[in-house]
């Protein structure tokens, strides 16, 4: 059984016990890089924001601000609870403490399916993004499957290496993808946009329009994965502060950055023309803007950086999934082997192998069925994952006030009651918006959308059934589930 208490000796001296994750490795910036990289800012902006503009008009930037504000409210209770809950189980541990073990085990299964859905589907996007880049730059057409399979191997290797290797790599990739967007914004601002700079995007009359609901649905989806800061608690330096700071930094950065970039792209075409431009060529909107205001070389670079943005997102989700697998193996819910940590790299490498094999199986199944890598592999696999993670956020928000009613604490009522209740209401609205606009995400039939929506609740119910079975057949495992570790990690 892997050791669950923290261990600060390096791998050269850790001979008396089985290896553990490398404690004290990640700072605030490192964890923020993981979280923001998972959101894939460049891919979200260039690939999704044009649809938000086409549907919501020039008020689209406010949608990203509202989504960020909602998640900041959620983060208040979430991070307050993180000071008291030291488990590496992240969402499921928080939900267990507030709502009980059965709900917590249901949440654990939902988390595994949700994070896997968010990652595995993106291998389809990797294939199509690489295809588009090679065609645009060199006129080369290649099949998507070899690219996706090569991506699986590359991401496995990144997760196999030490966590500080992953943090440094993601830091470089994230700086590159945000840098190209900043370059675009700088070009637009320096040249004064297409027809001068305008603040009309923030006028109530342009925000309170029917299309705002669709913008909000896209905006909430753009933050998916931000809550994974707590997954790295055991590898963080001063986790009580680092995790909390990284969460707020990630939410603030994404909300403000998304809104700013969308606003600058609107300025690139002008308030009167951007909606038509976004509707007629959404895939080319950002490339057209950067070509006009920076140069064709920058558009070529943006093509390349979209591929690296996708790779960064894949690696961030892969690392999060591996740590969930490690935690659940230590709980006794998943096979013990998944809790094995590599002696040199101190990574949960067998969980990484299992996740890579699962990803390869799904990718090959979609390829064998002749499915489209974007419209079906990406969208059909990502969508249940996105809904599942939003549902976990909702359950975590509900769990906060229940948890603080059960313990003695000195936290204020604003953090333990008011903010979590507000977050519960706002996240419920967000989930409704996403589910009622699911056709915008998937482009699929009503039947397919109903099936995709049903995956998350079905997995959660299955998890509760698993919990009841564990309580009967393995009561010791059930009683230990999400128990507080003996020392902080």
Shape: globular
The mean pLDDT is 89
Say how many strands there are. 0
Q: Please estimate the helix content.
A: over 70%
Q: What's the main sheet like?
A: none
List unreliable stretches of 5+ residues.
1-16
In percent terms, what proportion of residues is strand? under 5%
Summing up helix and strand content along with how strands pair, one would put the structural category as mainly alpha
Compressed to H and E, one letter per element, the order equals HHHHHHHHHHHHHHHHHHHHH
Figure out the total of helices: 21
End-to-end separation: 18 Å
Give an overview of the whole structure.
This protein is mainly alpha-helical and 489 residues long. The chain has a domain at 28-87 and 125-369 and 415-440. Helices cover 73% and strands 0% of the residues. It has helices at residues 28-39, 41-47, 49-56, 60-82, 91-99, 101-120, 122-138, 144-160, 163-191, 204-207, 212-221, 239-269, 274-280, 285-293, 296-331, 349-368, 373-406, 413-436, 438-442, 446-473, 475-480. Helix 8 runs antiparallel to helix 16 (349-368). The chain is globular. 56% of the residues are buried. Residues 1-16 have low confidence and may be disordered. It comes from Streptomyces aureus. Residues 35-472 form the Amino acid permease/ SLC12A domain. This is APC family permease.
Draw up the topology in text.
Elements: H1 28-39, H2 41-47, H3 49-56, H4 60-82, H5 91-99, H6 101-120, H7 122-138, H8 144-160, H9 163-191, H10 204-207, H11 212-221, H12 239-269, H13 274-280, H14 285-293, H15 296-331, H16 349-368, H17 373-406, H18 413-436, H19 438-442, H20 446-473, H21 475-480
Helix pairs in contact: 1-9, 1-12, 1-15, 2-15, 3-11, 3-13, 4-11, 4-12, 4-17, 4-18, 5-6, 5-17, 6-15, 6-17, 6-20, 7-8, 7-15, 7-17, 8-15, 8-16, 9-12, 9-15, 11-18, 14-15, 15-16, 17-18, 17-20
Main location: membrane
Organism: Streptomyces aureus
Pfam families: AA_permease
